[in-house]
Amino acid sequence: MGNGIVVSIRGLTKIYRQGDIEVTALNGINLDIAEGEFLALMGPSGSGKSTLLHIIAGVDRPTSGECVVQGINLSLLSETELADWRNQNVGFIFQTFNLIPVLTAYENVELPLLLTSLSRRERRQQVETALELVGLADRAKHLPRQLSGGQEQRVAIARALVTDPALIVADEPTGNLDAHSAQEVLGVLQTLSKKAGKTVILVTHDPKAAAYGTRFVHLEKGELTN
Hints:
It is a single chain. With about 230 residues, this protein is α/β, with parallel strands linked by helices. It is about 30% helix and about 30% strand. The protein has seven helices and ten strands. The strands form two sheets. Strands 6-7-8-3-9-10 form a six-stranded mixed beta sheet, sandwiched between helices. Strands 2-1-4-5 form a four-stranded antiparallel beta sheet, covered by helices on one side. A hairpin with a 2-residue loop joins strand 1 and strand 2. Helix 5 runs parallel beside helix 6.
């Protein structure tokens, strides 16, 4: 695992316009994130942490400044290029698991691979590896309703992992979970960073969740405070 810089952010500003009103979500952010780091983005609601996560993940664009991920300045990509880049490089985990209820855990994890040119055997290998990484190899045939909330979120993590992205971005992934399930999920993210060398970026307002990271940064009104 290298310790090169995966994400380099300079002078990043995001302004949302609502009619005549301008809301500054991010104000001149500078931040570097190293390969294999597990970074927790902390801050109260409305501090800009989800906006920052979305810009790093190529879902949103900054008003000014630059976000360079793996040497690529995302601002310079067209919408199509950005969509392709996201599919290949970013695994998303949300507060809601977004699993398809009529598909098994295996089929839910396999979904992103159906867009690729992989053979069925190659897909199976990647799905089984992803389920193993999150400790759910024995639950492959279960439907979401047969799983606990923590297990559902681990299936969602396996789905985010299955394309072998460089970046895993998680937006309040434990928000809907009880304390025990939250620990399970955060433990999986920690393992992915430590053992699989994934760069994990976690948005949370919970100091207990942030403690799983290798580093945390705090956002307050669109500015980094540490």
